[in-house]
Amino acid sequence: MITTYLFYLLSFLAIMFGSMVVLSKNPVHSVLYLVLTFFTIAGHYVLLNAQFLAAVHVIVYAGAIMVLFLFVIMLLNLNKETEPHKSIWLKASAAVASGSLLVVLVGSLKGASTIQSTNAFNPNIGLIENLGTTLFRDFLLPFEVSSILLLAAMVGAVMLGKKSIK
Amino acid sequence: MTLSFLIYKVILVLVIFAITLLVATYSTYAERKIAAFLQDRIGPDRAGPFGILQPLADAVKMFMKEEMIPSVSNRMLFIIGPGVCMLTACMTGVVIPWGPSMNIGGTEYPLQITDLNIGILYLFGVISLGVYGIMIGGWASNNKFSLLGAIRASSQMISYEVAMGLSIIALVMTTGTLSLGQIAADQPGAHWNVFIQPLGFLIFIICAFAETNRAPFDLPECETELVGGYHTEYSSMKLGFFLFAEYINMFISSAVISTFYFGGYNMPFIARFVHDPNWLAVLGFVFLFTKISFFIFVFMWVRWTLPRFRYDQLMNLGWKVLIPLSILNLVVTGGWMMRMEIYHFFIK
Amino acid sequence: MQALTNRSKVVAKKEMTFIEKLYLPAIFSGMIITFKHFFRRKPTIKYPEQIRPFSGVYRGQHVLKRDEIGAERCTACGLCAVACPAEAITMTSAERKPGEEGLYREEKYAATYEINMLRCIFCGDCEDACPKEAIFLTDRKVDSLYTRKEFVYGKNILVESKENPISLVKRQTPQVKEFKHHVEFAHNQTYDKQKKVKNSSH
Fold first, then answer.
1. What is the rounded average pLDDT for all residues in chain B?
2. Which strands make up the sheet holding C108-116, listed edge to edge?
3. Alpha-carbon distance B237 to C68, whole Å?
4. Which of A106, C58, C79, C197 is deepest in the core (most CB within 10 A)?
């Protein structure tokens, strides 16, 4: 019962903060609203009994990635004066593009009958032990491949950050 | 979940919150006293006997000071900043086991607000959010020194979080659990994790110094370069919140260090003399606080001994020394845990 | 170039050994040093309760003494003002009227006598210069005041009251008095020379 109310509250907050990200003029405010959105999504994870995902979501997205975003935006010091003036044609085309995307989304959701999960929901699937065994037993190869991908990205970043080698 | 249990939890939350604030308050007093004693001075001794009421006087002073908000600042974020700092500092105390369970009338009363099965990750998440208070406050001040301080703070905290996380992973590998209550319970007597993970402990305590922004890692607020760092523009109790959050962080990190590496509420030989679980709980609480006090003293002792790092030295230490060391620690720990398998693999 | 002293040290930037590079031994030894200071005796003197003992020859606020019957000793000769290296003393003289014998010892007296306590360096040369034993430095401290004007002490502060004369026994011990009689020990050389010039002219 209480989880239903929590779900609606969290969903409302997530949508509200998500729209605030788009609507707020100040880019720093946008980033902070995005952080709040991440919190509400972490709340959803907790409701689904996936505490590990919730914690990792907060640590990785809110705690690390958004901090870097904030970093860059603070250093760029984006003001209203420095904002590039966009032409009316650009705005109109953006409105048409996003409007057609909305139409497509609404149409596809309306066409689909009720969304059904293919297999029964296991409430313990998000727990850390199950997640660990799944990751390291069933999906070991993709896991390791993605770690190699991250390693390659890191090496690339280090190479870009280094002073030019003669 | 019965009503009495709920009431008990509420009381426990309030008590722990009160204790956290009290300890943080008296940490300011201890800081001044210890600094004075290490420098051959006496320190505050006017308010009450031995100056014991000094924190009260400080608090009254902080509240009475004129509240100033710079006219060019971002007013809302300027006020939110110290609040976020304080909130994240207070949130961490939830998962720490303050003592073994009490048993009153056949009902178990754990001295831990909640034993999350992802306790360590929760702790880590909250710590990583601590940056926001400083960043928001520093940016909203609209002051170059504040911004520089905030950027220093956040880059420092992000860098040291990596090494801290890796050192904890080695600990998690040996303990096999992410719950703090389980980690504390798994170190009975003198089977403390520090003997299993000495290198991990060293890395963790260095990172804890960096995460709490204390000397020798107090670059975000270093007076000689940045006036007051991220809280240059702050005054009155908003400044007090920033300073207070630092002391709460120090208290919590001491508690976490004691729980992770020094057995938490356990003490050698105590099980031989005391058998009543309630007395054990009370004594465990006392032992934990002794350990915490010791680590708070170490925090202060280090602050008043070591000079401050230069920023490039700080980053070098974080990325080029601590992270490789913690990875080495991880590999060695893994190798030791798999020693039988490796042995069989090569002997066979 | 030849070294002037043999105290100079050649600074060499040595490569640090592995143990030194760890920094941990250095950190621990530093922490042991500070920990030793933790138990040191503190040299602090808690001021309002404890007062550091004054030196026997402490030179504090001046006093203009009265003689046995309570008349002011100062004759406004101006020797103290001349001797004062900081030029802190000013005075104006006046003639004693008949009937004022109980107030002033000699025919000439100081109508005003001011010492600027902000200029005074408490050297005690006025005391040495005084031929009438009128001005002395005492072991009293000069008060803290709020304005510069207040620090110009006039006769109302400097002259001792008849009812409670300022005791000088602490500073004016018999040894000090004996010492003062020997002109050759006087450290004020200009004063000495003036005296010698005066003597030779006679």
1. 83
2. C89-95, C108-116, C152-153
3. 65
4. C79
Tokens for B232? Answer: 């240059």
Domains and CATH numbers, chain C: 62-201 (3.30.70.3270)
Closest Cα of chain A to B141: distance in Å? 12
Region C7-31: mean pLDDT is: 81
Chain A contact probe: residue of B134, B135, B177 with most A CBs at under 10 A:
B135
**How many angstroms separate the Cα of B25 from the Cα of each of B29, B31, B55, B150, B244?**
7, 10, 6, 24, 8
- How does DSSP assign B314-331, residue by residue? HHHIIIIIIHHHHHHHHH
Q: Which residue of A has its CA nearest to B176?
A: A129
User: Is B38 close to C44, i.e. CB distance below 8 A?
Assistant: no
Q: Tell me which residue of B120, B85, B99, B79 sits closest to B16, measured CA to CA.
A: B99
Residue with the two structure tokens 């005054």? B235
pLDDT of residue A145: 92
Dist CA B299 CA B251 (whole Å): 10
Residue range C181-197, pLDDT digits in tens: 766 655 544 445 555 55
Predicted ipTM beyond 0.85: no
Q: Report the CATH architecture of A1-79.
A: Up-down Bundle (1.20)
Q: From B298, B216, B288, B219, select the one nearest B256 (Cα to Cα).
A: B288
- C-chain residues near B37 (CB < 8 A): 37-38, 42
The answer for residues whose C-beta is within 8 angstroms of residue B232's C-beta and 6 or more apart is: B141, B143, B145, B146, B149, B226
Label residue B50 left, alpha or beta by phi (over 0 means left) and psi (-120 to 50 means alpha).
Answer: left
**What pTM was computed for the model?**
0.78
Comparing alpha-carbon positions, the chain A residue that sits nearest to B129 is A63
At A120, the amino acid letter reads: A
Give dist(CA A51, CA A38) in Å, integer. Answer: 14
**pLDDT mean over C57-62:** 86
Cβ–Cβ contact B67 with C under 8 A: no
Domain ranges of chain A: 1-79
Which residues does chain B have within 8 Å of residue A71's beta carbon, measured at their own beta carbons? 135, 151, 154-155
DSSP state of C133: S
β-pairing, B102-104 vs C62-64, is unpaired
> Residue C198 has what pLDDT?
53
**Among C72, C70, C91, CA closest to C80:** C91
Instruction: Give the distance, in angstroms, between the CA of residue A135 and the centroid of all CA atoms in the same chain.
Output: 21
- Residue pair B89/B249 in contact by the 8 Å Cβ criterion: yes
H-only helix segments in C113-167:
125-129, 155-158
Write out pLDDT tens, residues B79-125. Answer: 888 888 888 888 888 888 887 777 776 677 777 777 777 888 888 88
Give which of B281, B288, B285, B282 is closest to B263, Cα–Cα: B288
- Three-class DSSP category at C112: strand
Q: Identify which of A63, A70, A71 has the shortest CB distance to residue B128.
A: A63
Q: Say if CB B208 and CB B147 are below 8 A apart.
A: no
Report pLDDT digits (tens) over B165-206: 888 888 888 888 888 888 888 877 777 888 888 888 888 988
Distance from CA of B216 to the nearest CA of C (A): 11
Q: How many Å apart are CA C77 and CA C109, to the nearest integer?
A: 8
CB contact (8 A) between residue C46 and residue B38:
no
- Residue B109, strand partner residues: B102
**Taking the domains of chain B in order of start, what are their residue ranges?**
72-347
pLDDT digits (tens, 9 = 90+) for A88-105: 888 889 899 999 999 998
Contact status of A67 with chain B (Cβ, < 8 Å): yes
C-alpha triplet B231, B232, B237: angle, nearest 5° = 55
What stretches of chain B show up as alpha helix (H) in DSSP? 3-38, 54-64, 75-91, 119-140, 144-175, 180-185, 193-196, 198-211, 223-226, 236-261, 270-273, 277-303, 311-316, 323-337, 339-347
CB contact under 8 A, B132 and A35: yes
